[in-house]
Amino acid sequence: MMVMTDNPETNWTAYGSYSDQVAFLRIGGNARLSWFDYSQTVNKMLTNNRRTSQRFGVSVRTAPRDWPRVVAAYTKGYNRFKGGSLSTFTTDELELNLDWRIGSDWSLLADYIHFRNVNRQTEQATAYEVANAAIDYQRETSAWGFRLTANNLLDNRTKMSNSLSDFLVSEQVTYIMPRVWLLSVRYKL
Asked: CA-CA distance, 170 to 84, in Å (whole number)?
């Protein structure tokens, strides 16, 4: 049976961000809001569904170009699906980055992510942490360069995430390569 309505779906999305320099730091914030209402026929039953998502973030980074570039960002997310069933998730994400030029020959790169996802119906939480780092040596007068890279320093083996769709709530597991150390040698022509 086909059902026609005057307004089968409504979708609203808003995004805003602001940043400003305070002393030697650039401080910023952002928000992403989304509302999606629609009607859907499943097993010959018409259901009205509502999917909402809100993400709020703040970040701080060093501003001077001659300083090490350090970025810290935190994002809080809320996701909810209400239709034939109810699903609510919250997420917390912390991200740290470092890009530091040491003298004229050395540079240090590092990043870290902590992600936590909580299913509010079951209070089941999943979390993962990933950290990577690299140190690079390149003399200005030499064609030779060297880099030591460490990927997955914390040796985390999985990343888990949850998603909402029109028909199901799913949990996805992504397997990560174990800790890897890599020494690179390069020659500039």
From this structure: 16
CA–CA gap between residue 188 and residue 120 (Å, rounded): 54
Cα angle for residues 123, 83, 90 (degrees, 5° grid):
30
Spans of all domains in the chain: 9-187
Q: Distance between CA 10 and CA 37 in Å, rounded?
A: 5
> pTM for this one?
0.85
Alpha-carbon distances of 26 from 18, 94, 138, 151, rounded to whole Å: 10, 17, 29, 28
Mean model confidence pLDDT for the chain:
89
Distance CA 119, CA 116 (A): 10
Count of beta carbons in the 10 Å neighbourhood of residue 79: 21
